Amino acid sequence: MRTxxxxxAALIAxxxxxxxEIKIGSVLSVTGPAxxxxxxxxxxxxxxxADINAQGGVxxxxxxxxxxxxxxxxxxxxxxATRLVExxxxxxxxxxxxxxxxxxxxxxxxxxxxxxxxxxGAAGIVIPVRKWVFKTPxxxxxxxxxxxDDLKKRNLLNIAMISGTDGWGKAxxxxxxxxxxxxxxxxxxxxIYGAADSDMTPQLTNIKNTPGVQAVINCGFGQGPAIVTRNxxxxxxxxxxxxxxxxxxxxxxQLAGAAAEGVRLPxxxxxxxxxxxxxxxxxxxxxxxxxxxxxxxxxxxxxxGGHMHDALFILVEAMKRAKSADKAKVRDEIEKTKGFVGTxxxxxxxxxxxxxxxxxxxxxxxIRNGDWALIR
Amino acid sequence: MIVVAIALVVLLLPxxxxxSFYYRVLALVFINALAVVGLxxxxxxxxxxxxxxxxxxxxxxxxxxxxxTYLGIPSWAALIGGTMLSALIAFVVGRPxxxxxxxxxxxxTLGMGLLISMVFTNEAGVTGGPNGMPVPxxxxxxxxxxxSQTWYWISGISLIIxxxxxxxxxxxxxxxxxRAIHDSETAARVLGIDVARYKLLAFVLxxxxxxVAGSYFSLFDGFVTPNTASFLLSIxxxxxxxxxxxxxxxxxxxxxxxLVMLPQVLTVFHDYEHIVLGLIxxxxxxxxxxxxxxxxxxxxxxxxx
Lengths: 376, 305
Prior knowledge:
The complex is a heterodimer of chains A (376) and B (305). Chain A has helices spanning 2-16, 35-54, 74-88, 99-112, 140-153, 167-179, 201-208, 224-234, 250-256, 283-297, 303-322, 327-335, and strands at 22-28, 63-69, 92-95, 116-118, 133-135, 158-164, 186-193, 215-219, 241-243, 264-267, 340-342, 345-347, 363-368, 371-374. Chain A is of the alpha/beta class. Chain B has helices at 2-12, 20-45, 53-71, 75-97, 102-122, 124-127, 148-171, 173-183, 185-190, 195-221, 231-244, 249-265, 273-287, 292-299, and strands at residues 133-134, 138-140, 143-145, 223-224. A two-stranded antiparallel ribbon of chain B has the order 1-4. Chain B is globular.
């Protein structure tokens, strides 16, 4: 056991012998059930850091990356977080692909005083505000708010909900139910399905038989929403169907097929980069990101890699403004981020808001002819 | 002898540990080893398979999260309560399913583990669901217990005690009864051993070890997710026990050490780390099929337990 330990110490020592460099750590779910998040995030990070280093780095110092794969396991993530702090002595950390891993790690960075930007959805990461913790993705209350806005515009105030038991679906369901009265929306029926269920006809039949339902919201991500969408059309329900930004990748349209026609969802601008009007401030950023990512990886762009793009550049710009990688100065500068245009929207952070996105960051999108279409 | 070896390792390692990251990794080794020592009593000595042991680990882990949060009881009381609950569930569930043998027992324990894991995942209103929930820090006599070094000592000393209990148990008539059941249930019954009772005892004991380890695990992390009760973790425990050597207490510690530390060492292989990890495990099991510690002991002509 001791030899193994000595060997591991030697290996770690070999990989960490560095000179004046900015060390950025990242713990991502590159494998496991959340790999559709972690994989594009890792590729995005490596791609842009290679670029930055080729152009001479930040403040004349090159960036050195420490990327670990937690496989979606919160405990492994925390071990790697400790390693980033104690062993690699990083200057900042990006990542935590999912809420579970981010929540288990943030305490480590908050105690150690290291700027940390999470890529996970839950609002609970930045509420209550923790001094060293920031995040880039849109939250579940934002998804609810954007959908309710659209419902109000279309005057569809009596709705039903069907939610998955995955982490995202559950959190969003709670938020939507809490927020509904503020928008004058009434939830007439509230149905639940298991994350691995293969048929949601019973729940949807209940919704169909509830009189007065004008629209249905599906909270969930993964394969569940695709099955809901198919069953929805099979039952011939005519009320409009809304999804969350948890389905904003092409695989949802492929899985749901023709049934996805007419489904609406709020999402970041990345997936509809080409359709944004030229006057849109986000157009330049998202088009550049989309083209670069698709060229480098050969895969269609998703919003998730975009969260990493935003996190990296918020950090890099903060380091440039701080003119160093000093942790406390960089943290203060991240908090002062104003008018930063990322793929997720315009970011304006403050001491009370470590996310900095508002509802304008979201676009309402409808699926038409098997592709995303921006609703103007 | 084995307990002394483990105690020496626990006491002397801090002399060469460079940072608290190493304390964390070793604390995780000790915590996993504690669960695996218990599982070894059941699998290695009594010869009964369990593919659901993470279920008990999860009960321990969630009891110290739920108890203080919702019932306001102190963490140490929740730890004891969770351990007792685990033992009770093992007792109630064990009676019928330990009648099964081989694959059937494996499937039954697997089902039990999955059910426990589903409860933690689906009762999101209480447990936070798949996103997990924070665990209040352990307080002992007004002292807030946290940090890798503190938990190194707590888990290390607990492992020494756990291993000591296990070694003594094996040397006792109960331990001999376990091994008799392992070799042949019929022969054991002929000798007058109450087979059902001893199997149940081994099952309950192993559940207690797993629950204590689970409680330590989530108190140490300050955060708990349903991964602590997941099927994959059950499999990991079995792999640790088999890799180190079934029927060897020292083997359980070695198995846990390898499986916890290897992923940290293998990060140098980046994208290939999982392939290398799998390869190492396969090589071990092909060349040392009886497990690392028993194989080495046989080579040096000694028999250890």
